[in-house]
Design a protein that fits this description.
signal; FAD/NAD-bd_sf; Amine oxidase domain-containing protein; 6-stranded mixed sheet; Polyamine Oxidase, Chain A, domain 2; FAD/NAD(P)-binding domain; Amino_oxidase; FAD
């Protein structure tokens, strides 16, 4: 039986795993963990191998490709997939897992050839994308009230959402002298399109309107740009309160050998980190089930991984106020 290749497209960055016959995927987890810990900037991994032993079974895993590589096209057919990157590298695999954001799926960054079916495209386009921007301003000293009950400030303006929700960070980070302001959707996109200097000027005008003309100028500003980031194209998905569950199922549903995952595929926790985590577990189980049906690989080591290393039950407590989330 030949080797199996599974390609994971994560935020359009390529991680390809070449799994030799009769091996366990456990052997490569530490390498993938190192990729995650060190980040993708400046980190390249090509044809590195790892030997591991799981029980009595020698394990040989090869992690192929370069990280990061930007995926531009995914070709698919009945028996496999082909992933093509921006620098014209080509990877062929048995399956591909696509975990890019819903905003990227709605953009033209990644092309599918042949195109995704109509029902899939309609589901992707119907899913709302929220742009949520928290701007941080650092000052030489604190000039705003702090203490219990004085963490948030609300600014009223003729324009809806114009630098409305402010939060001082002293309760969480004493001595930081940092204020944050939250913008969403239209205001987020408007601010992302202008310079940091213009944004700082607008924010300072609002603060002087609230606290008087003698407050100091900010010495630094951080403006995230989730909408203009081509690897993100928004902050998170938003399913309406009254939503057609079929829409979520269609967003998540595989197309041939292309599997989809991410927070936008979670019907219970979309928009949250734990939603993405749980969706990844669900998608991996679905892929393993498909592998079992296709009988393309000896699956006992892989199935052992899902039984032992992935939590069967997560307890999500605290501010989330979710008693539990059973898989």
């Amino acid at each position: 039986m030949g080797p199996l290749v599974v390609v994971v497209v994560w935020r359009t960055l390529l991680v390809a795993m070449h799994v030799e016959e009769d091996v366990s995927i456990k052997g490569c987890l530490s390498q993938l963990s190192q990729i995650s810990k060190q980040g993708t900037k400046g980190y390249r991994l090509t044809e590195q191998h790892k030997l591991a032993r799981v029980g009595k079974t020698p394990t040989y895993v090869s992690v192929i490709g370069s990280v990061p590589e930007v995926v531009r096209e995914i070709q698919h057919w009945g028996s496999g997939v082909r992933v093509i990157t921006e620098d014209d590298c080509v990877y062929e695999a048995n399956y591909v897992i696509v975990s890019v954001s819903i905003g990227v799926l709605q953009s033209d960054l990644v092309a599918f050839n042949p195109p995704l079916p109509r029902w899939k495209l309609e589901a992707i386009q119907k899913c709302d994308v929220i742009v949520y921007t928290k701007i941080f301003l650092k000052f030489p000293y604190q000039f705003w009230p702090s203490g219990p009950g004085k963490e948030f400030f609300i600014y009223a303006h003729d324009r809806r959402g114009y630098y409305t929700f402010w939060q001082q960070m002293e309760n969480t980070y004493p001595g930081s002298n940092i204020l944050s302001v939250t913008l969403t959707n239209g205001e987020s996109k408007r601010v992302e399109a202008q310079s940091n200097e213009d944004t700082l000027k607008e924010a300072m005008e609002v603060l002087r309107d609230m606290f008087g003309p003698n407050i100091p100028d900010a010495i630094d500003i951080l403006v995230p740009r989730w909408w203009n980031n081509r690897f993100q194209r928004g902050s998170y998905s938003n399913h309406p309160i009254i939503s057609n569950l079929q829409l979520v199922r269609d967003v998540k549903a595989p197309v041939g050998r292309i599997f989809f995952t991410g927070e936008h595929t979670s019907d219970r926790f979309n928009g949250y980190v734990h939603g993405a985590y749980l969706a990844g577990i669900d998608s991996s189980k679905e892929l393993l089930e498909e592998m079992r049906k296709s009988q393309t690989l000896f699956l006992k080591p892989l199935l052992a991984l899902t039984e032992s290393n992935i939590p069967r039950q997560l307890y999500l407590t605290g501010k989330l106020r979710v008693a539990d989330a059973k898989l």
